[in-house]
Design a protein that fits this description.
Elements: E1 5-8, H1 12-24, E2 29-33, E3 46-47, H2 49-58, H3 61-66, E4 70-71, E5 74-79, E6 83-89, E7 100-101, H4 104-117, E8 121-125, E9 127-135, E10 138-146, E11 151-155, E12 158-161, H5 168-173, E13 186-191, E14 200-205, E15 211-213, H6 250-254, E16 257-263, E17 270-272, E18 275-277
Parallel strand pairs: 1-2, 1-12, 2-8, 5-14, 12-18
Antiparallel strand pairs: 3-7, 4-7, 5-6, 9-10, 10-11, 13-16, 14-15, 17-18
Helix pairs in contact: 1-4
Length: 286
């Protein structure tokens, strides 16, 4: 089999790369993903105006709305003692593209389906890279294996690795992933929305660390939990350090915590021997 581009990893980075290439060029693109489908990691659910501008240009914005995306039109800042400090529109002069929130699996699904609709992108789930093909010191494709173990050689002009911190593409070309130990962590907590709470982006200010409240869209509960022994943090949310989520702000106190997770991220974009690496991400909460 021969295509123009193989993209390894069908998360937001890989799927967006496939969609952008398909919209801009007459290329045949193979998008491969080792998981069963979209949304296998706990990642962001916000689509900022620069992102929705791209989605509109690529023909994916209406699909996001059809999938249940909610628009966030205001931004508020609360102090844990003084209360409301600021309430302003979440817009900029001359910018008409919205700020949307949508569950991450739906974001991935929408981008993949929009890419498929171009007729230039094929998606294969439950498929992994066994090794890269090389000719004269240049990468010219990959050997792919399906979930059943059948291997296939696929030749391509370019191989893109968007398969995360444990990237098979990166390992195959010998590119190391620099890792940095942060002195903080980002916790993600799902709580029930208080009755009548508006769709606003809300920051709760507290001397021990703030809370960013993003209104979500209904989805199944998450089950991941942070490991405090692995995550030195200035944001101890009910992890046996004498602080509780309820002490951080009135919104948090009004909701029932459903789950807790944290993540740390890094980014590396490099190009080497017809191989590109996009959006490397370390997510220790597994």
């Amino acid at each position: 089999m021969e295509v123009d581009v193989i993209i390894v990893g069908a998360g937001v980075g890989g799927a967006s790369c496939a969609l952008a290439l398909a919209k801009a060029h007459n290329l045949q693109i193979l998008l491969v993903e080792r998981h069963l489908g979209p949304g296998n990691l706990n990642r962001g659910e916000s689509l900022l105006p620069p992102i929705t501008a791209l989605l509109r240009r690529w023909g994916a914005l209406d699909r996001c709305r059809a999938a249940g995306a909610r628009e966030v039109g205001r931004m508020q800042f609360f102090h844990y003692r003084a209360g409301l400090l600021l309430d302003v529109p979440l817009t900029l002069p001359g910018v008409t593209d919205p700020y949307l929130v949508l569950p991450h699996p739906e974001i991935e699904r929408v981008i993949v389906e929009t890419a498929q609709a171009t007729g230039r992108v094929e998606i294969r789930y439950r498929t992994r890279v066994v090794r890269l093909l090389e000719n004269g010191g240049r990468v010219c494709g990959a050997v792919l294996a399906s979930d059943g173990g059948r291997e296939e050689e696929v030749h391509a002009r370019l191989v893109v690795g968007s398969d995360g911190a444990a990237s098979a593409v990166r390992a195959a070309v010998g590119i190391e992933l620099p890792r940095t130990q942060y002195n903080h962590a980002l916790f993600i907590v799902d709580i029930d929305r208080p009755a009548g709470h508006p769709d606003v982006l809300r920051t709760e200010l507290h001397p021990d660390g703030g809370i960013l409240v993003v209104p979500g869209v209904g989805r199944p509960p998450r089950t991941r939990r942070a490991d405090p022994a692995r995550a030195p943090t200035t944001f101890p949310v009910g992890l046996g350090r004498g602080k509780t989520l309820e002490a951080r702000g009135p919104f948090a106190a009004a909701g029932r915590p459903a789950s807790l997770s944290y993540r740390r991220t890094s980014l590396q974009i490099v190009a080497r021997a017809r191989v590109a690496l996009l959006g490397s991400r370390r997510s220790p909460a597994r």
